[in-house]
Specification:
Blueprint: H1 3-13, H2 19-26, E1 36-38, H3 42-46, H4 51-54, E2 56-60, E3 65-70, E4 92-97, E5 100-109, H5 110-114, H6 120-142, E6 158-162, H7 167-176, H8 179-182, E7 186-189, H9 191-199, E8 209-210, E9 215-216, E10 219-223, E11 234-237, E12 242-247, E13 250-255, E14 264-277, E15 283-288
Parallel strand pairs: 2-12, 6-15, 7-10
Antiparallel strand pairs: 1-13, 3-4, 5-14, 7-11, 8-9, 9-10, 11-15, 12-14, 13-14
Helix pairs in contact: 1-2
């Protein structure tokens, strides 16, 4: 972004820009309701939503309807000389995605707004990354599917059932995922299970959790506070097959008057998204069931 744009954005956020300046510099970004496009850095999001690192994010301008997502698993093959190239039949597939709206209001004291030594843009970026990042991760794991997306823990994923958490159970769970997806796989675990996994040892007495790089069997381990289903404490798979559709950019509106009696300015912010796991076999869930013997 240019200095001129950042300067105009700063004035817009502090409610000190006049109408002419807003129209000239931010005009193409302001909609009829007074919202502007607002960008939060991806690195900021990744601090609060592990799927910002793992999933495939697509930004589209359509507000609803079907989206083409890549589903091809084809590989190249030997060809005879002077023969046609093989053509893949299903490189993309239409998937129906909705447009669910996430929103929040950030309030800032007028004293901070008036103090130009206070970096308002940095503050908003951090606060919005935290609020939306946590909300996204929570939905991607626990979404009910009722007026919100369906989270992974509530989807009909292939389960690997064990009666207790052991080294052998983790090995069997690891190899239950097809190698096609295992090569790029990682673990997502709850806090409680992370503690247990750190204590697990192999047959030689070595801890299976490599604490120098947070891996198990060479695969990264991510801990989420939203893995709160005690019977489904571990997800393992290639989460790049989780396609997340962002419907345009994040939108922000300055609320000059709503909180004026408290000497505050509000910022109403929204984003629209949906997500789907495009290959159901790409992710498996460990199901703890003390009443059952381990099974696939």
């Amino acid at each position: 972004m240019s200095f001129k744009y950042l300067d105009a954005l700063e004035k817009f956020l502090r409610a000190t820009a006049d109408t002419t300046e807003i129209n000239e510099t931010l005009g193409t970004d302001i909609d009829e309701a007074g919202f502007i496009n607002y960008n939060v850095g991806e690195e900021s999001f990744q601090k609060y939503n592990i799927f910002r690192k793992l999933a495939t994010f697509l930004n589209v301008s359509k507000t609803d309807g079907k989206i083409l997502v890549p589903v091809s698993d084809d590989i190249a093959g030997i060809m005879e000389e002077n023969t046609p190239f093989p053509v893949s039949e299903h490189e993309f597939e239409e998937k129906g995605f909705s447009s669910y709206k996430l929103g929040t209001i950030v309030k800032v004291k007028q004293d901070f707004i008036s103090d130009y030594s206070f970096n308002l843009i940095d503050y908003l970026d951090g606060e919005l990354a935290k609020r939306f990042g946590k909300a996204e991760e929570k939905l991607m794991l626990n979404g009910s599917g009722n007026k919100e997306p369906l989270g992974l823990l509530n989807q009909d994923l292939s389960c690997f059932v064990v009666n207790d958490l052991s080294y052998d159970a983790i090995i069997d769970f690891y190899f239950s995922l097809s190698k096609e997806y295992r090569d790029n796989a990682c673990f997502i675990v709850s806090d409680e299970i992370a503690i247990e996994l750190r204590k697990l040892k192999d047959s030689d007495g070595n801890y299976i959790w490599n604490q120098s790089n947070d891996t198990i069997l060479g695969k990264p381990v991510y801990v989420s506070s939203y893995m709160n289903d005690e019977t489904k404490p571990i997800l393992f798979g290639d989460f790049s097959y989780l396609s997340v559709i962002l419907r345009g950019k994040m939108k922000l509106k300055v609320l000059n008057e709503l909180f004026a009696n408290k000497y505050e300015i509000g910022y109403a912010v929204k984003e629209r998204l949906d997500f789907k796991l495009t290959q159901a076999d790409a992710v498996r869930v460990l199901l703890l069931d003390s009443s059952e013997e381990s099974e696939d």
